[in-house]
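Entry:
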Amino acid sequence: MKVFQVNAPHDFKVAEVEIPTPAAGEVLVRVAFAGICGSDMHIIHGDNAFVRFPRITGHEFAGVVDAVGEGVADVSVGDRVCVDPVISCGTCYPCRIGRPNVCSALEVIGVHRNGGFEEFVSVPAANVHQVPEHISLDAAALVEPYTIAANVLDRMQPHRGDRLLILGAGMIGMTILQMARAMGIDEIIVTDVIDERLAAAKELGATHVLNSRTQDVEKEILALTEGEGVPLIADAACVPALLPQMLRLASPAGRIGLLGFSVQPSDLIQLEVIKKELTLVGSRLNNRKFPEVLALMASGKLDPLALVSHRLPLSEMPDAIDMLDHRPEEARKVLIQISI
């Protein structure tokens, strides 16, 4: 079968390997579609400390169950499924208190073990979710990015009437925007440095967009909020240097959700945090959010296909990587069609 394999940083190719056999408790999924994520790019660039090479990447994918391993009772051959990449132990402290996405022995499909950029992938049966018939498999491949959005919003605990500021109008920023709209957040400000992305954010329901390269974001937001600041700030830009600005823009009692994995230090001005009694929360992966996102997709409150700019076959993965590296303004979500 064909796979996209990263052998080492900047060393990747489409290769041929044997089809895996599902172990006990696992199912073999014939992958239909898989999405390229920013974290896949971090693996390719050597910026992910968790990955072990060689690795077949991909953690956003959906397909059809092709075989089931011993002991699997709730999943059948032919089932249309999407896959939660979070594998947890169930016994450590985070798991015991209902936070398996930060399990002490966490494994992530596509990072710690092989992922969805292959024709067939074996995954734990507990990690597959049935896709309703009226949700297409290309849409189902994008459930995972929306779970990232659902997780960070849940961590920030929105109140009725809260404004939301999203820094960054890439894929995660756009999923946060759509998820926030689905949750009933009416006023959403989005910032970015690329006008095309801001135009897309406006199309998807942002009430205000600001180009942080050409506009004074702090001045504009403080004017918009009559000096109060913003209760909810989601850092989808993941630039450590932006933290001081986020602290200044947050309203008293505001909540800031951080998503980045940069090892660069951030300047934390304690006075800003204490005088406003701010809450800074990290958000990693998703904490059992697949059913919630599938329900919102089924209801029509989320439109994942509006985010897709390119559909390419697996053989063109290297071209997709080149585009995302050198011409990111051309792309929203790139979907790889593997089988159908």
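Residues 40 and 192 are 21 Å apart (CA to CA).
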